[in-house]
Each structure stands twice: as C-alpha cells, then as structure tokens.
Amino acid sequence: MSVVSPHSTGITRLGFSLKAMIDRTAYDISWNADLPRGGRALSDDVELTAELEFVRAA
C-alpha cells in the first residue's frame, strides 16, 4: 500500500509497505536444526517485510 498525504502540520508524508518471499537456500543460507519431535527448525521460504515512511524536509 502506498499513501501520499499532507500531515496536520502541512508537511507531505509518503508511506508504503514492501513484502517479498525468498528462498534462503538461493543465498547459501543452509543452516538448519532437527527438532526433538521431528521436522526442521527453519523453512526454506523467508518472508521479508518493510514499512517505510518519508517526510519532506521543510
């Protein structure tokens, strides 16, 4: 989502969200551990999320 809006002070702000899914093994991040009841501790898929906000300088 992307939003450009004036703040109550009159300064313009820009905010947006970023999401991406990557395969961590594609970047040679291969560490993992077996769980006591079976299975692995980490998935190969990693979700990256960023919330950004920018304020125009006065």
List the defining traits of the structure above:
3 strands; three-stranded antiparallel β-sheet; 58 residues; mainly beta
Please explain how this structure is put together.
It comes from Solirubrobacter ginsenosidimutans. This is YceI family protein. The protein is mainly beta and 58 residues long. It has one domain (2-55). 0% of the residues lie in helices and 48% in strands. The chain is built from no helices and 3 strands. A 3-stranded antiparallel beta sheet has the order 1-2-3, with no helix packed on it. A hairpin with a 5-residue loop joins strand 1 (2-6) and strand 2. It starts with a strand and ends with a strand. The mean pLDDT is 88.
Number of discrete domains: 1
Quote the average pLDDT.
88
Would you count the extended β strands for me?
3
Major pleated sheet: 3 strands, antiparallel
Strands in their spatial order, largest beta sheet: 1-2-3
Radius of gyration (CA) equals 19 Å
Distance between the termini: 25 Å
Topology:
Elements lengths: L1 E5 L5 E12 L21 E11 L3
Antiparallel strand pairs: 1-2, 2-3
Kindly summarize this structure in a few lines.
It is built from no helices and three strands. It has 58 residues and is mainly β. A hairpin with a 5-residue loop joins strand 1 (2-6) and strand 2.
